[in-house]
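User: structure tokens for this one?
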Amino acid sequence: MTTTTSDHRTGRAVAGEGLFESLARFVVIHNGQPSERAERIADQAVAFLVTAASATVPMVPSDDVDHGLHALILHTKEYAELCEQYGGRFLHHNPRPGGGGRDPEKVAASARAMKAAGFAVFDDLWTVDGANLAQCDADCGRPYGQA
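Assistant:
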């Protein structure tokens, strides 16, 4: 596993232990991920959201990170609070049926933006491989936070 860190900022630290544990548990239960991997997915999902809130590039999650992002969105109160705190607005998630798959270049740009924002990035979770698709891969391929 390759981890890139700028200043050791983590999604886990941003979320706080209560929310973080709930997100990781959700990914274990609903996505069948082992605990350690679910924790890394949850970390990346929070880091992704915080970065997306102020990013200047289109943000698209990887197949794996999308699991954590969906878990985060379902924690509606905490999700809304993070959006407001880091972006000053609510970031809507509006899947568009038939919108196509993830653009690998945008996924890679998202990971680079997270690194530039100082987050630890688990490179092995930032893939688009066509075999491990997230639940809504067919309609979540547009930049995050755009209606």
